Amino acid sequence: MKILVVEDETDLLEAITQSLGKEKFLVEQAIDFDEALDKLVSYEYDCILLDIGLPNGSGLDLLKKLKKGDRKNSVIIISAKNSLDDKLAGLDLGADDYLVKPFHLAELNARVRSVLRRKEFNGQEVLSLNNLKVDFSGRIAYVNEQELTLNRKEFDILTFFVVNKNRLVNKTSLAEHVWGDQIDEADNFEFIYSQIKNLRKKLKEHHAQIEIQAVYGLGYKLIEI
Q1: Which helix (DSSP H) or strand (DSSP E) does residue 66 occupy?
Q2: CATH fold of the domain at 126-224
Q3: I need a labelling partner for 39 at 20 to 30 A (CA). Which of 27, 47, 55, 196 fits?
């Protein structure tokens, strides 16, 4: 899952990034309004942690732009402002949660997992497709109750396909979801082909009743078999 942290306090920004990274999230950063807007225009995120008070603009204005564009991102406002008006304004604009500074990083991580479950998995922590079971919170996948040995990227790819089952997933969307804006440094999609090849091999070896099909020239699709 990919998260954007919009925060101008560099120490807090790094602490949040490291904490979420330990939870196996892909985390990107923005330190001001303009950088955040540029990333939000260019990339998709599963969750956005958004400070209200930013250099060059307001986090609430970013939230307005997101919702005006009908983006489905989960948004958690993180702010030192503890007034009821600020909280209500953020929630009215479509924020999913509001956390007041200072806060414990463990609480922030729990809030992130909670909004992601609500939005992406309809509140579920475990999702089953035939004989495949994916534990999102534990980041473990099973086939016939036998654990699959997956690296971080393979699990993220599998999760993305499971959430988008029976839908065509193009290579660019998949790359941005799993690798973030680091894909700009790549010359081609060989890194995707390699990870998907390994994932498909492991699913086949365990006789998973799902298949990641290649759609020539377009991308991939996960189907139940």
Answers
A1: helix 59-68
A2: Arc Repressor Mutant, subunit A (1.10.10)
A3: 196
What are 98's two structure tokens?
């509001």
CA–CA separation, 24 and 137 (whole Å) = 10
Domain residue extents for the chain: 2-120, 126-224
Q: Name the nearest CA neighbour of 155 among 135, 173, 175.
A: 135
The tens digit of pLDDT for each residue in 158-194 reads 988 988 888 888 887 787 777 665 555 455 678 888 8
Two domains, one topology: 2-120 and 126-224: no
Give the three-class secondary structure for 186: coil
Contacts of 136 (CB under 8 A, 6+ apart): 116, 117, 121, 124, 125, 126, 127, 159
Q: What is the pTM (predicted TM-score) of this model?
A: 0.64
Tokens 């988008």 sit at which residue? 164
Written as six digits, the tokens of 36 are: 């955040």
State the number of CA atoms in the 13 A half-sphere of 68 facing the CB: 8
Q: For residue 75, list its beta bridge partners.
A: 48
Nearest CA-CA partner of 154 in 210, 207, 194, 205: 194
